[in-house]
Amino acid sequence: MNRRIKETVIKHAFFLFALVSVIVLGLIVLSLFREGLPVFKQVSLKDFVFGMEWYPTYDPPSFGIFPLIFGSFIVTLLATVIAVPLGVLAAIYISDITPRPAVRESLKSVIELLAGLPSVVLGFFGMVIVAPWLQETFDLPTGLNIINASVILAIMAIPTISSISEDALYSVPQEFKEASYALGATKFETITKVILPAALSGISTAVMLGMARSIGETMVVLMVAGGAAAIPESIFDSVRPMPASIAAEMGETPYGSSHYHALFAIGVVLFFLTLSFNLIADYVSHKFRQTGSATL
Amino acid sequence: MKWRYFKQSVFFSLVRASALIITLALGGIIFYIFYNGYSVISWDFITKPPTDSMTKGGIMPAIIGTIYLTLGAIAIGLPLGIASAVYLTEYARQGKVVRAIKIGINCLAGVPSVVFGLFGLGFFVIFLKFGSSILAGSLTLGFLILPTIIGASEEALKSVPQTFREASLSLGVSKWQTTYRIVLPNALPGILTGSILGIGRAAGETAPIMFTAAAFFTSKLPGSVFDEVMALPYHVYVLSTAGTNIEATRPIQFGTVLVLVAVVLGIDLIAIIIRGYMRRNKRW
Lengths: 296, 284
What we know:
The complex is a heterodimer of chains A (296) and B (284). Chain A is mostly helical. Chain A has helices at residues 2-36, 45-50, 66-97, 101-116, 119-137, 146-170, 174-182, 187-198, 200-216, 219-224, 242-250, 258-287; strands at 54-55, 62-63.
């Protein structure tokens, strides 16, 4: 009897530990709202999200974050355009056409190490190497701009996209490939017409998670996007994505000021943006999962 | 017929080119940092504090600070992560509650690092009044790496064969004793190597500690968990963007970046090597 009570207690204790992640998620939402909502006493939600002017330190201040949202989206989209082909092709290389196991394992390690590079290091690289090169080659006023930030963000997104795509490609049943080869299809035809369509939901998940990663990434956009809070006219203009604004301004903002609350409100927007990306990715991966070789 | 094989060879070249580009990107970045940074590295650089408003001297306080923050993050993330994974793999019955917890973990994994920073600032620094401190920074980083550790632990626990559990339970051993004495010891190497990758992330993150723990400059080492610390990633950021003389401190910046990369990738590489060794010598 005593033993049964002990077992029950232990089981419930573990349940509580498992709940910690959910509780932390709740606390994150709560803290963001608690510190972020007061800004809406000063500015309406519509003017906050669609306002074109971000002058938080002026008197009177102007809290329109549309240029910041636009900045976030433009660097994320461009980074995705660069990272998806590279990441997916690398995943195909690893899962379907790599010559030797040693090569495959090394490339997997390379991708894992790339994922491990601290973001501040990549930001530093973009600032010290890529920016001066861009500035000289294209004769620009500054090398800290959209294209620079996008390239560096792409480097960060590639490991996410590549490793999740590889899992998806790997889990395509062997029978599919054999059936395709048996019909006389080449390897290229098998990959593009059989394997890729079968792995599409996994690859979409990979792309969504890669985008979520890019849109929330801070140090890179803080260091290399240039920091201009305006709608850019070309990919060589500077932008100020949301995370960069939060990170750059929080240090100089007095606690409790409306600027301080506005930065938390940007955090709320950023949180729900990445949350929706993650939930869509989760939905896609569960809804359209390849469950067996008989279904397609 | 020829055309089909021509398309194939073009495609294969593209695939190989992508693999090559990714490898060159990593190699190029590491080479460039090493090439510019190694001449700065010396015993004094690692063991002396900065001098002359951070334009000379070493980075010792930043190294110590990063070690403290990382150890703190491990102390919080590792036990919580392993316990969560034990519940999810050993105790929970698949159903709505487990699905909800898993979605929660996935969402937590997707929270941007700067939002973790805001959370740490709003909750630990201000609401719980920890101030900008090792404690607040460690808690923030600990929760940041929690999903990684849960994921790694779940995978390691699942790879312990079901027959091990059945053999133990059939001897009349209780569930908890089976988990503690049989499952966990067999899963532990996998849990640790998987978690090391999360630990590398904790050591390299900047945004979560910017408002919760990191100091621009401290002359002395921290005396308690309520003190601010310098940290390697934040030191890189500060020197390269807001230093008194950015160009003049370039060598120190490269040196600091090199030490940071060596620490983080060193940690990751150890995990990758141990994991490869374990896979080759698997006993079941």
